[in-house]
Design goal:
- This protein is mainly alpha-helical.
- It is built from twelve helices and no strands.
- Helix 7 (118-132) packs across helix 8.
- The longest helix is centred in the N-terminal third of the chain and has 33 residues, at 64-96.
- The radius of gyration is 27 Å and the shape is flat.
Amino acid sequence: MTTTDVRLQPKKKGLTRRQKRSLSRGVQYVVFVAAVIAFAVSADWGRLKNQFAQGSIAKQMFPDVITLALKNTVLYTLSGFVVGLALGMVIALMRLSSVGPYRWLAGVYIEIFRGLPALLIFIFIGVAVPLAFPGTEIVGGTYGKVALALGLVAAAYMAETIRAGIQAVPKGQMEAARSLGFSPARAMISIIVPQAFRIILPPLTNELVLLFKDSSLVLFLGVTLEERELSKYGRDLASTTANSTPILVAGLCYLLVTIPLGFVVRRMEAKAQEAVK
């Protein structure tokens, strides 16, 4: 066979890279659908309904699950967020300070409270503080304790987020403010911090979602019937009715808040990326 004959032979065609990706994607879809069908067929939906979806029990939870449990959860979350944001702002500025002891104190705080589980912080506030300072009452009762516990945990994360946001602002902004006669403190508060908050708004909203779920730890502080949040409320009713429907309803109430917040975060992140482009 001559070289010309070899060149004239048709080349064997294989799958292109795009076709391979499409085939791989199709196989993944088939596997996913098969897994969903297998789960749907094998699950005992009757038993699940009896244990988690009793309409009569769910009706008994209203309106208290909204007007009491969800309201308390939102109040706990917002109070903890406010305390965490204020404390986190102070720690972030200490972290950026030119004074060494401020930086060291801020670093130690962040490492400790970011490393400890939130559960231990709640136990510390509820047990250790009264033992260490007999007769001392935290302002606001249970609401004040929850705000302090959630705030201490959130501040460690928010401080690092705020610090990163401040450092993301171009240095020329501070130099321009100083050239206009602003003091360093006034320039930071009036010029730098507002720009930093526009940058860190999405991660701060994510922190709000996390605090909303961490508020369930309030049960370790010992709450009254009127101070119960969603998890405690659902668990108490589940014990009373010997059914898990209240837990499912409480979970849906969490999603009623966290899903819209998650949507808001995604929208803010998308707008931030568009602004950068």
